[in-house]
Structure prediction request, 218 residues.
Amino acid sequence: MLQKIKGFGDTKEAQKVEAQIIERHSGAELFAPAVTAPAVKHTLNVPRL
Amino acid sequence: MASKDLNDVLLPGRPLPADSLMIAKALEILSASPHGQQLVNFVEKKNIVIKIVRTPKAVSYLPEKKLVYIGFNRNNAISPSCFILMLAGILREAQQEAAGIEHPDLHAPLEKHKEISMAKHEDKVWYICTVATELNDQRAFTEYKFLDELRKMGHNEALDLYLLQERNG
Prediction:
């Protein structure tokens, strides 16, 4: 029943789908710790006159 | 509602109509293509329920075998052509499931996941390409620019390969 497109496996789309399958399978989405951005220290770098 | 009353909805460049009208019109347009007609028959025969939900990005999914969701952002709505092609894709996925071609369970080996899920995706893309080509060939749907829409949806390479395959028989 499943239809095929010759060469589809080499497309960027196929690679993207494969990457999503691997990610889902590894459970990375479910179990990965929340990613937090590193704290950024804001400083005013005003030159002294 | 009779289909003649739907003629002024789901047209390119016009605001999207109410959900029920969108779905009815999309199915009506799909039925103008032989492969789309198969999907419409499937919806009727298997009593598939189609629902539209609000999501940040355009997405379609199949939470149950007979329940199809299409989501998009109403404030930045998708085009009618995109909606019709998304519907075709997710209905094909429902057809696969109905035929017993299902995703492996969560704990199945990665190779099995890759083999089945990739084959299902390729088949879905083939089906969308076929419906888009069949509709694009009809003068009544010139404005919908189905092939351009398919490329915008990220199926550019796939469409080129599909058209090449069809040309070469």
